[in-house]
UniProtKB/TrEMBL annotation:
PROSITE patterns: MADS_BOX_2. InterPro entries: MADS-box/MEF2_TF, TF_MADSbox, TF_MADSbox_sf. One of its GO terms (cellular component) is nucleus. This is MADS-box domain-containing protein. It holds the Pfam family SRF-TF. Keywords: Coiled coil, DNA-binding, Nucleus, Transcription, Transcription regulation. It comes from the Eukaryota. It comes from Citrus sinensis (Sweet orange). GO terms for molecular function: DNA-binding transcription factor activity, RNA polymerase II-specific; protein dimerization activity; RNA polymerase II cis-regulatory region sequence-specific DNA binding. The lineage of its organism: Eukaryota, Viridiplantae, Streptophyta, Embryophyta, Tracheophyta.
């Protein structure tokens, strides 16, 4: 039987999915081993089959703990940047192969850029600073500088009482 060109999308049949995984797993492991040797890189590959069985590969000089520690040391911005670079490379590859692939399937729900995420972090940090300031009024009443601060504390108490009443 000859080769059949598959569209790159999830196979609907569970048995076909398992067979395809079994056949392609060895090819992926071979490629990882070759890449590790040819480029002298640290590599760790962890795959879970459709049935949930795991396959773990690491290069000859790779230590799983060290590779994960190196990855964990990357900043969230660097991880996001690398993820976007990988997705761009995937897009180019799929265009060359003329496949209809929705990159959103790979991304999941979030497609935010590093700039958008950084902006969100700044907003959340500002909100956190504001909340810390308000809480400091409760622990140190000497910090209260205006009637507005007292009103905020009063509103906060009312909201808390309302929440307690709702739970009753």
């Amino acid at each position: 039987m000859g080769r059949v060109k598959l569209k790159i999308k999830r196979l609907e049949s569970t048995s076909n999915r398992q067979v395809t995984y079994s056949k392609r797993r060895n090819g992926i492991l071979k490629k990882a081993r070759e890449l590790s040797i040819l480029c002298d890189i640290d590599i760790v590959l962890l795959m879970f089959s459709p049935t949930g069985r795991s396959t773990l590969f690491h290069g000859q000089r790779s230590n799983i703990e060290e590779v994960i520690a190196r990855f964990a040391q990357l900043t969230p911005q660097e991880r996001a940047k690398r993820k976007l670079e990988s997705l761009e490379a995937l897009k180019k590859t799929f265009k060359k192969l003329d496949h209809d692939v929705n990159i959103q399937d790979f991304l999941g729900a979030s497609t935010q850029t590093v700039e958008e995420l950084t902006h969100q972090v700044r907003i959340l940090q500002a909100q956190l600073t504001e909340v810390h300031q308000r809480l400091s009024y409760w622990s140190n009443p000497g910090n209260i500088e205006s009637i507005e601060h007292l009103r905020q504390m009063e509103n906060s108490l009312r909201e808390s009482i309302n929440q307690i009443c709702l739970h009753k």
